[in-house]
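Re: weekly structure request thread

Next one in the queue (134 aa):
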Amino acid sequence: MPDGLNKVMLIGNLGKDPEMRYTANGRAVTTFTLAVNRSYGGGQGGEERKEETEWFTVVTWEKLAELIGQHLQKGRKVFVEGRLASRSWDGPDGQKRYRTEVVANQVLFLDRPQGAPMPDIGGDIDPDDLPFDQ
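Done, posted below.
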């Protein structure tokens, strides 16, 4: 039996364009914010359906970071799988700061950029059979 489990799975939209940089030792790292919407209510009694948005900071490393930096933009829908990680640092005012982030090990693109052409997949495949909106 495992000692513990730290796993996060999210589906949402990028809140802004990803920010890619390289560490001092040359490792690619890309950070982006992810907006995840949740609907609730609207049950019996005429209650109005409500929606809330939860924001997450997602960090990717190495090859995944480079792919994210090259292919994703604000608004794109993605599936993110990873783990939660907390870090701390001293702010310019000397106060200790904390942040909890999702360190992603997998990011799946769930849509394609607006106006992008259908990929040339060859063969006699009907575009209506493809698993994403056209």
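Strands lie at 8-14, 19-22, 28-41, 49-61, 77-90, 96-109. The longest helix spans residues 62-71.
Next request, please.
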